[in-house]
């Protein structure tokens, strides 16, 4: 009996999350997909390293840190572009995107330098 109540609660939770996410603007959904792609790429690289090995360890670290850093910067972009966020209401979306691109450029220059 407790299990069916927990299942009902889980279904209600997923239904409410899905209906709330349906109201999310498309630009935020695209950023969410980009974040999901970056995190999935990092997980694939870690799984590959666990299976095959990490002979060029610098390459492994660079790849994973690139994915994680890009995901973190994309989360920052999502926070700044979100219209419901009152902290960044005066910041135009173009400025937030320019910050995202510039920080990604610096991140990847550091990662390329770390490769050697």
UniProtKB/TrEMBL annotation:
GO cellular component: oligosaccharyltransferase complex
GO biological process: protein N-linked glycosylation
Membrane topology classification: Multi-pass membrane protein
Subcellular localization(s) per the UniProt record: Endoplasmic reticulum membrane
Keyword vocabulary terms for this entry: Apoptosis, Endoplasmic reticulum, Membrane, Transmembrane, Transmembrane helix
Biological pathway: Protein modification; protein glycosylation
InterPro entries: DAD/Ost2
Function: Subunit of the oligosaccharyl transferase (OST) complex that catalyzes the initial transfer of a defined glycan (Glc(3)Man(9)GlcNAc(2) in eukaryotes) from the lipid carrier dolichol-pyrophosphate to an asparagine residue within an Asn-X-Ser/Thr consensus motif in nascent polypeptide chains, the first step in protein N-glycosylation. N-glycosylation occurs cotranslationally and the complex associates with the Sec61 complex at the channel-forming translocon complex that mediates protein translocation across the endoplasmic reticulum (ER). All subunits are required for a maximal enzyme activity.
Family statement drawn from the similarity comment of this UniProt entry: Belongs to the DAD/OST2 family.
Subunit structure: Component of the oligosaccharyltransferase (OST) complex.
Name of this protein: Dolichyl-diphosphooligosaccharide--protein glycosyltransferase subunit DAD1
Lineage summary: Eukaryota, Viridiplantae, Streptophyta, Embryophyta, Tracheophyta
